Amino acid sequence: MPLGELLDETFKLYRAHFTVIAGASLIVILPGLLLTLISGSYRANPFTTIQQVIQNASNPEQLQAIQNRNAQFTSSPLFLLSIPIGILLFPFTQGVIFRAATSMAAGNLETIGSVLRGTVRRYFAIWGVIILTGLVAPSVLVIVGIWVLIRWTVALPAMFAEDIGPVRALGRSWNLTRGNWWRTFGLWLVVYILVVILQYAMLALFGGIAALIPGLGDDLRAALVSTVTSIVSALVGAVSPIVFTMLYLDLRVRKEGLDLDQLARQALPGTAPA
Fold this sequence. Notes:
Layout: H1 3-16, H2 18-39, H3 46-55, H4 60-73, H5 77-105, H6 112-121, H7 123-136, H8 142-151, H9 155-162, H10 166-176, H11 181-212, H12 218-237, H13 239-256, H14 260-266
């Protein structure tokens, strides 16, 4: 598939299974969002901070007070608790959409619960891919590091679709992207730009609306902006895993003559909704 068709198939899959994909994305971010709201650190979100800085640009004392207040919010025990929780949930934020997209592309029926359970079963394998990838990311040879990371782009969909471990998944991605580096890199670059534009456009729209609603107190306004930011980031961020799942399928069709019936036999059977 050319780039346009890959993106078209991505959005078709997203629309067809929006409830499951969006639901799984939002459930994963919910613990961190709740801790942000309960701890009060939502008051330090960028939109609210920028608004306060602009309003007090000519008042150095007030600017210093804003900085001190934000530091206080982000050092609260509940906010600090969100850090290890975020680490524990990191494989979900990285893997849950790959799990959903891989199975749904094979024609399996999924629910939010079955997607989360499928991600739990591969929890440590996802950590393996994350750790091995992370060892390459800070490479001193930046160009080499980027080259390797692009070759590993489809490791997670390979892991879920073929039920293999992290090392073998990285190897499968390496083989599938051989001869397709520039195409994969181009897709990665386009998707990254697309997601960033969508995120900032939606954040500017909904965050701006939340910031301008009259009659809201500063705390409620900041909480609303922080909530909108988290939800928009989760929903728009789901696009990337779906795109790279489509790329994985496309590469297998090109190199191995894969059809969806074959993938459906390989993938774990979906769970019918209750």
